[in-house]
Amino acid sequence: MGRTRTKKKIPSKATDPPIQHAQSIAKPSVESLLEKAQELVVECDYELALRFAQRILDEQPANAEAKEIAGISFLETGELQSAREVFQSLLPPSPNAPSPPPPAAHLYLAQLTAVEIMLGQLKGKERANDESEKNDESELKSSIVRALVGQVEIWMDPSYDLCFEPDAEKNCEDLLNLALQTDPNNPEALQTLASVRMSQQRPEDAKACLELAWTAWKDLDLDDPRLPPIPTRLSLVKLFIELSLHTPALLVLQGIMAADDQEVEAWYLEGWCFFIMSEQAHENGGKLDDLTWQELAKDSRDCLETCKVLHTNQDHPDKPILDHVQELIAKLDALGVDPSPLDEGEGDWEDDDESEGEDSDVDMK
Question: What is the reported pTM?
Answer without folding.
Answer: 0.62
